[in-house]
Design brief:
With 490 residues, this protein is an all-alpha fold. 73% of the residues lie in helices and 2% in strands. Helix 7 runs antiparallel to helix 8 and helix 19 runs antiparallel to helix 24. The two termini are 28 Å apart.
Length: 490
Amino acid sequence: MSESINATEEDPSSNKIRLSIWQALIPVIALIGMLAYNVFIYGDDSLAGSNQFILLMGAAVAAIVGVSKGARFETMIDDVAKNIKSTTEPILILLMVGALAGTWLLSGIIPAMIYYGLQILNPTIFLAACVIICSVISIATGSSWTTSATVGIALIGIAEALDVSVAMTAGAVLSGGYFGDKLSPMSDTTNLAPAMAGTDLFTHIRYMTITTVPTIIITLIVFVIIGLNLDTTGQTNPSEILNNIEASFNVSGWLFVVPILVIILIIKKTPPLIALLIGTLLAAVAALIFQPDLVRLIGGGETLTFETAYKGIMNAITVDITIPTDNIILQGLFSAGGMAGMLGTIWLIICAMVFGGIMDAIGALERISEALLNLFTSTFGLFFSTVTSCLALNLTASDQYLAIVVPGKMFAKAYEKKGLAPENLSRTLEDSGTVTSVLVPWNTCGAYHSGVLGVPVVDYFFYAIFNYLSPFVTLFFAAFNIKIRQLRKK
């Protein structure tokens, strides 16, 4: 705590150089400045490639700071390699989500979800229903990612057909998805946070409901109010859309067998990659059974042969496909990008991991977290430092796991010294590290969900109410000393 803030010598305990706080912030300030200007110039098109290069430029600034203070370039590259390696599974999941979306379109699964969903849901209750549906699915599966990739995609399609804002819908999907993700004992972050803080899983979940339940109730109330005030005048007649879907697809309730089986697999703790692969293959079989004419069409043949069937299925899995329709609204819904459609998001994740890896290698992430810890000495200050540290790491390290692990390691002793039970820390890590990751466009979670749902982060940010409200609720409880559990004296 008494270390000089201007020390720059090498830290023997971490094999990283010792930066001052201002030196550690140079790459962050440079990155934010460059990203702000880039978004100003490109707008929504900034994610098409220019933001990716800006992340590399931010990494270059971090590398220059590191080299100028004696860091080895080889060490930085090693940390970058480790960082990128840690995203192997998310990248593969993204590719499989692209494949799943393509086959679920071709087989008629997504159109069937839209078809039946239009008959059940209406604009007034739609957004609140999205929150509830995604909460249930996410609690059952333990994954906000799986929730977005399955029911999330279908709900976006229903929103477009109902003429409800897709930005609002994405916000509702993510609010419900992350609520369920936080409370599910099968969620990786829900297991990681108590492990870092030093408490057990179910104590953590029970304690987390204190802040999480009020937050989701507020979120639902807001979406109900929005739904009651939605302007539905001039909305397309749903019966027309239903007729167009029937004209393009053989709609059948049997198609729901595939998504139900995928959800069951995930509930049974089947690895997501395997579950998504099985879902893709089952949808391919369903396409051959229920939509043979569409398979032939996408395969480019006059008749359905083994060759045209193979090409039709492979095209749906790998590249852009479009199902012909005269309905303008359905034209967007009847197209999918396959695995190729996820490459832009993967590109973004890799570049973000380069920046995060170099920031970690030069000790900048640790230095920023340490500075935040030193800023405050009160109980509220400790909570505030934790929240700020998690947010900073989501912005700089571009990964929610680092936003849980680094502050978890940094603050565990501080909470103990304050006489605070470890579940205070684990709850705060989730309330600020897990849920806000999806609000950062270059974070792995922000990149994933915006890519899967087809809605830019800047569009859904305002409507991801649960996600940005959670840190404020946890700070409110800390400020007024509500349910702040103390350590039990042994």
